[in-house]
């Protein structure tokens, strides 16, 4: 399934290849997509893919009067994942998600990430089941022509505010194109942005590339783009071969809406 360009999934080039209560498969392109803070290749789009495909499996488990919202997302990548993706960027990353365990207050999905048939990671998405909201935005059913914006920052409607000195900041611009069906910034866009700032915060000026190994995101409250809305990250530790950074999404009200921790190696 192709999505219109005026939706978050279409904007990011996501294609759903298969969907059912037992298995959902989707892909995302990575060619030419660079971290706007570092100008380096990035695995951030994978977070968008996982939020979609893992959340979709969980969404199938809802009751008729329920809706689902992401509460946690976690990604674990193999040591050579970035190298494989960068070596053949024209090949999309594919995620296959399945339900994991019984449904409770929330549902858990388990995904496998592959690139050109080789496993490059695993991921989980935990979703809360809530009462269906009174108003759900209906995305257009028709596919629009054209292609998504070339630059990743334009696809995600973010702009660089700060980079360097162990810190990184991206502004989340208000744009309905990156909002989900309940009118807040799509969870995949937020998760990808947190990866961008966290990985950039680890930059130490040596030029040695960091490889993201794990990303864990907690969704605390609704996050909307705005004048002061931003993603901030700061390095907690930068060693000879490993680094850890924390990141958060902060809304116009000054409150933290999402938290993330990233671990990287080189």
For the termini, the CA-CA separation is 37 Å
N to C succession of SSEs: HEEHEHEEEHEEHEEEE
What is the gyration radius calculated from CA atoms? 17 Å
Strand content: 35-45%
Largest sheet: 12 strands, antiparallel
Strand order of the largest sheet: 1-2-4-5-6-3-9-12-11-10-8-7
Mean pLDDT: 91
Got a strand count? 12
Which spans have pLDDT < 50 for at least 5 consecutive residues? Answer: none
Shape: globular
Organism: Mycolicibacterium setense
Domain Thioesterase: 183-256
Pfam families: 4HBT
Protein name: Phenylacetic acid degradation protein
What can be said about this structure in brief?
By secondary structure, the chain is of the alpha+beta class. It has helices at residues 8-11, 44-59, 81-87, 152-156, 187-201, and strands spanning 15-19, 24-28, 66-77, 93-99, 106-115, 118-131, 158-164, 167-172, 211-219, 230-238, 242-250, 256-265.
Summarize the structure in words.
It comes from Mycolicibacterium setense. This is Phenylacetic acid degradation protein. The protein is α+β, with helices and mostly antiparallel strands. The protein has five helices and twelve strands. It has helices spanning 8-11, 44-59, 81-87, 152-156, 187-201; strands at residues 15-19, 24-28, 66-77, 93-99, 106-115, 118-131, 158-164, 167-172, 211-219, 230-238, 242-250, 256-265. A twelve-stranded antiparallel β-sheet has the order 1-2-4-5-6-3-9-12-11-10-8-7. The longest helix is centred in the N-terminal third of the chain and has 16 residues, at 44-59. It starts with 7 loop residues before the first helix and ends with a strand.
